Amino acid sequence: xxxxxxxxxxxxxxxxxxxxxxxxxxxxxxxxxxxxxxxxxxxxxxxxxxxxxxxxxxxxxxxxxxxxxxxxxxxxxxxxxxxxxxxxxxxxxxxxxxxxxxxxxxxxxxxxxxxxxxxxxxxxxxxxxxxxxxxxxxxxxxxxxxxxxxxxxxxxxx
Length: 158
Prior knowledge:
By secondary structure, the protein is of the alpha+beta class. The protein has a domain at 2-22 and 65-153. It has four helices and seven strands. It has helices at residues 2-15, 45-58, 130-143, 147-153; strands at 25-30, 33-38, 65-76, 79-90, 96-105, 114-115, 119-121. A hairpin with a 5-residue loop joins strand 4 (79-90) and strand 5 (96-105). The longest helix is centred in the first third of the chain and has 14 residues, at 2-15. The chain is globular and about 45 Å long. The mean pLDDT is 95.
């Protein structure tokens, strides 16, 4: 979750100054080392997201954990929002997948850039440790030098 938080903050930072969608990324962590791959030459956003997800699933780098983040529209409480979708996987005997939706208001909106509280979807067997996982996500978010403070300063009500 710390990896997901860090790169969510990174993507929020990118979204704060973009006029279009944030380019999909794949980030992995292995033995404490992080890697990042951008998917900006795939021909379409859908192809970029699918390629990033396929590479994450294949885990050819034998990573311990990885995430794909991409820009999308999501409906929350019957309102369509721009959002960063975070698909996080902890690899192991049985991979565990967590989905995080980070709604945001684009930089070119009339109200200016803003972020809302993330929505986290956990597998049933992780609900008991949800608080610990959320704390790890925010620890990762806060650790991004530019994105952490920006996220905090840009927080708005949904």
